[in-house]
Amino acid sequence: MTQTAPTPARVAGGAAHGAPKRRDLPAWPVASILAFYPIWWALGLGVLIFALMAVPMLFLLIRRRAAGRPLRLPPGFAFWVIFLAAVVVSIGALGADPAGTVAEHATGRLPAVAYKALMYASLTVLMIYAGNLTEAELPKRRLVKLLGWLFVVTVLGGLLGMVAGTFEFTSPVEWLLPPGVRNKGFVQSLVHPYAAQIMDIVGEGQPRPAAPWGYTNTWGNNFCLLVGWLIVAARSSRAKFWMIVCLAVSIVPAVVSLNRGLWIGIGVLVVYVAARYVLAGKLWIIGAVAVAGAMLAVTLVATPLGDVVGARMDNGKSNGVRSFLIDRALDGFTGSPVIGYGGTRNTLGGRNSITVGESAGCERCGNFTVGGNGQLWQLLYAHGAVGTVGYLGFFAYGLWRFRRDRSAIGVAGSAAIVTSFSAMLWYNSLVTPLAFTVLAFALLWRNSSEGDTTT
């Protein structure tokens, strides 16, 4: 009896049955967050989209691992695990009431802490997922363009906040929530879209751009984190013109935002990038920075924008409050230096008297949030030395690990992380600023893994 030689199809079929199936990671969970963020914001999902998309990303990662494909973890991930462990362990201190803070039961503090822990976990999944995508699944160039697109969205949101500062609307998600839930301030900050925050920093009722990031400080933080990606994405000659237009237009909302942290962040960004280029022997960057600085100076002198900057520098109303909160955070750190207090606390009264507090007529007169004025202070106060070392150690190790990456992505990615270090003195990172920071880390990680560090 003769045997029939197996056909290629039968061999392939047998191999398919005998070996694990190849499980590619689709790009849509990451791409859809970034490409459609304005839609998520308008729907009332906003930052919640990161937690929602973390579910399919986690499932796809587990499925890929089960199929036999290796799952890579980012360099220095042990530091990040230490940070996450500190976030969880510190929850045990939620019942503590440090001196000078409003007493509250641990259960009352738990929802906000659980939300932050969920977001930290979701962004961890995002980082691992984005770092495990291959060039065939999601090209780095496409991811850079998506981040550059979000800078354009930031500028457009800033312009909207300038011309229609009172613009707001009830989102579909907000409509679906019970009145008792959707009327809470914290819930409103998540699901209620608005164009600007109205504040009286240099004049009564001054609109400060916030869309689509929820807060003016977050808007400024994301401005610094995303601007580099627009420049990298627009390296082609045709796109450079529109990039220059966008950067020129962005000066207006950046100044009108009255956001000193943003102005400092841009300065840090420019100095860092210029230093990297000089060390690489590209001395032309010195001339480029000088020309850009001269043009900015002329713009400030020749337009009303200069008066806005001057007025902001003469009105440092938040300086006293920030100093007060930094002192409270450091005092709290000495009281629980290892694991912190699990979350933020509200101060008794204001900086001048414990009898001063929030009221309908003065919402910012007291009961300030300790740890709400910068990621560094929140880390020290809420998660102690362990959480702070884990968080800072992870990103610092990334900067050291990828220090030789001289590619455009390498410089932009490391610049974003350096900017985040500067911003943590006055900005909190959750949710979108940290999301863009971990995506910058993922791009550096992929660049190193794929050997694209010199172009």
UniProtKB/TrEMBL annotation:
TM regions (residue ranges): 39-61, 73-93, 113-134, 146-167, 213-232, 239-256, 262-279, 284-305, 380-400
Annotated stretches, region: Disordered: 1-20
Keywords per UniProt: Membrane, Transmembrane, Transmembrane helix
Protein name (record): O-Antigen ligase
